[in-house]
Write a structure and sequence with these properties.
about 325 residues, alpha/beta, Isopropylmalate Dehydrogenase, 2 domains, twelve-stranded mixed sheet, 10 helices
C-alpha cells in the first residue's frame, strides 16, 4: 500500500510553494502518495513564476489522492489568500498554520503516514494569533507530549538539541539532569526507530567553553550533565560526554557517533549548517507520527524570484519516506 505523505505549503509569500514545485518537477519516489495541503491559487501563481506546469491532481479528501503523482487538497479559505511575495502578513500566517493543523490531524487519525512542513514565518503566525515559537513546539502541543526534540540530519550527521527556540540567557536555567536524560532517551529511541540504527552511539556536548574545565568555567557539566549521562548508562544507552563543543567537529570525532546532542540551538546548528551545505533536514523526534522540514526559513528576500534552492526540501521528503518504512520495519520486528 502506498504511503501518504502530506505537505503543508508554508507561508505562501515565502519560498515554500516554489521549493515544493521544483522538488516535484522530477518523478516522485516509487510507491509514495504526496498531497500538498494549501490552495490551488497559490500553486498556479508560483508555477508561472518558476516556469513549471504544476500538474496537480486537485482533490477534496485524502481518500481521493492518487499514488505516484502530486495531489493538492485545499485546506484554507479563499479569503486567506492575498499573494504578495516577500511580505509578512496575518492572512499568510493563518493559511500556513491551517495547513499544518490539517496535516497533524491527518497523521494523528492515521489518514497520513508523515507530514513535511514548508517554512513558516514566526512573525506572520503571531500576527494571526498563534503564540507558539515555531513548528516543533506546536506539533508537540497538538500531540500533548513534553518528550520531543529537534534533530537536524544530513546523511550520517545528526544533531539533536536539548533546548530549542529560547533566548540564550535562559539556557542554563532551563537545563536539568531530568531534561537532559529525557532528550538522550528520546534521541536514542529515534535513532533506532526512525533512522534504523540498532545500537546508536551519542556524543553529548558540555554547556560551557572546554566543557567547564573541571568547574573553572562553569559547573553545569559536573552538577547537571554528568548525572544525566550516568542515568543513560544505567539504562543501557551509549552516551559519551560532556564533550567540549569547540573542537569536536574539526577533530573528526563526529565520525565515531551516530548522533550529537547539543545543549542549545546555535551550539548545534551553526556547525551543522556549515557542514550540510543546504541539504539538511529538520526532524521532530518523540512524536507518534513523522514530521520533517527543510533546514531553512521563508527567505522572503528570494520569494517570487525563482532563486530558491529546493535541495533541502527534497531531502526532507525523501527522509520522511525512509522513516515511514523504517518505522514499519521496526514495528514488524517487534511483532506489532
Amino acid at each position: 500500500m502506498s504511503e501518504i505523505i502530506v505537505i503543508s505549503m508554508g507561508d505562501y509569500n515565502g519560498i515554500g510553494p516554489e521549493v515544493i514545485l521544483k522538488s516535484f518537477s522530477s518523478p516522485l519516489p516509487t510507491g509514495v502518495t504526496a498531497v500538498i495541503l494549501g490552495h490551488p491559487e497559490v500553486f498556479s501563481h508560483y508555477s508561472r513564476t518558476v516556469g513549471l506546469s504544476p500538474g496537480l491532481n486537485v482533490i477534496e479528501s485524502l481518500d481521493d489522492a492518487l499514488p505516484d503523482t502530486l495531489n493538492l487538497l485545499q485546506c484554507c479559505e479563499d479569503d486567506d489568500i492575498r499573494l504578495s511575495a516577500g511580505t509578512i502578513s496575518e492572512s499568510a500566517g493563518r493559511a500556513a498554520m491551517k495547513a499544518v493543523e490539517y496535516g497533524i490531524d491527518a497523521c494523528l487519525s492515521g489518514e497520513a503516514d508523515a507530514l513535511v512542513t514548508a517554512p513558516i514565518s514566526k512573525e506572520a503566525i503571531h500576527m494571526a494569533g498563534y503564540t507558539v515559537p515555531g513548528h516543533t513546539e506546536f506539533l508537540a502541543e497538538k500531540e500533548g507530549t513534553r518528550h520531543f526534540m529537534m534533530i537536524l540530519a544530513s546523511g550520517d550527521l545528526r544533531v539533536g538539541l536539548v533546548t530549542g527556540h529560547i533566548p540564550l540567557n535562559r539556557v542554563s536555567e532551563e537545563l536539568s539532569s531530568e531534561l537532559i536524560f529525557n532528550k538522550i532517551q528520546t534521541f536514542h529511541l529515534s535513532l533506532k526507530r526512525d533512522f534504523g540504527i540498532n545500537n546508536p552511539r551519542i556524543a553529548v556536548f558540555g554547556l560551557n567553553p572546554h566543557a567547564g574545565d573541571g568547574g573553572v568555567l562553569g559547573t553545569e557539566e559536573i552538577e547537571i550533565i554528568t548525572p544525566a549521562l550516568a542515568r543513560a548508562e544505567e539504562s543501557g544507552i551509549i552516551a559519551d560526554g560532556p564533550l567540549p563543543a569547540d573542537g569536536f567537529f574539526g577533530s573528526g570525532l563526529r565520525e565515531k557517533y551516530d548522533g550529537i546532542l547539543a545543549m542549545y540551538h546555535d551550539q548545534g546548528l551553526v556547525p551543522f549548517k556549515a557542514l550540510s551545505f543546504g541539504s539538511g533536514v529538520n526532524f521532530t523526534a518523540g512524536l507518534s507520527f513523522i514530521r520533517t522540514s527543510p533546514d531553512h526559513g521563508t527567505a522572503f528576500s528570494l520569494a517570487g524570484k525563482n532563486l530558491a534552492d529546493e535541495k533541502s526540501f527534497q531531502e526532507a521528503f525523501k527522509l520522511a519516506a525512509d522513516m515511514v518504512r523504517n518505522r514499519k520495519h521496526a514495528g514488524k520486528a517487534n511483532g506489532e
